[in-house]
Amino acid sequence: MKSPFALIALALFLGACASIPTPAERLAAADRLAQSRGWQMARIATGPFVLAAWHPVPLPRSERLTVYIEGDGFAWMSASRPSYDPTPRDPVTLKMALAQPGGNVAYLARPCQFTDAEATGCAMAYWTNRRFADEVVAATDRALDVLKQQAGARSLTLVGYSGGGAVAALVAARRRDVDRLVTVAGNLDHQTWTAHHRVTPLTGSLNPADAADALQRVRQWHFVGARDEVIPPAIAAAYARRFTSRQGLTVLTEPGFDHHCCWAEEWPRLWARLGFDSP
What we know:
8-stranded mixed beta sheet; 279 residues; single chain; AB_hydrolase_fold; Alpha/beta hydrolase; 10 helices; alpha/beta; Rossmann fold; 8 strands
């Protein structure tokens, strides 16, 4: 017979699960948000993955395209239990993309997000230990080719939030057309990050800090939240130490911010702080 405490715990767990929007509901909410600004969803086939994207249709022609790359999303139900679908409950990066004051902008989700991970057989490893795997970076790279061609762009600005910052950095290290890399609460050194939290290393994932030599040529701005306990400021500091020269690399600390607050809400101000001559 189960103890009353076990039954209570089970009831609480099931109640918590019931309160989590389904992947379809999360997709619908993100789509409503994007459509409210005239953006439409696209699905980009990249080989092993189909990546979800949102952008104005048609994507305006411009010399520069800024692409926002989503974070890890709803990767974990609890500290020890992965979710069955990583589609974000709160698409912070999509909100940031929609809030950019000017310029030509597109949003790109991560593998298995907004695409019904269960139905498509998307492996759980791609939002846990292999979230920054070579095939993930390669898929993002191919999706950027598609978006860049549609916009007729010559150069790219990549903006990545949380784990999306890692993917943005890894992609930037491979390309010659990314001349501006912006990360927000980015996981720029996952080896330091897993050691800090004393959790299992991300075996099978590439580490942005290991790409420092290739990234030396890319101008970079890395926002960190002083109150961020998920990806603390020490992670960006460890990443920066891997560079032989820090010319062109700027770490910007926001005193009152944590991992979630208040990046999307304050993004127009933060974007202006970067001082780009052209969006």
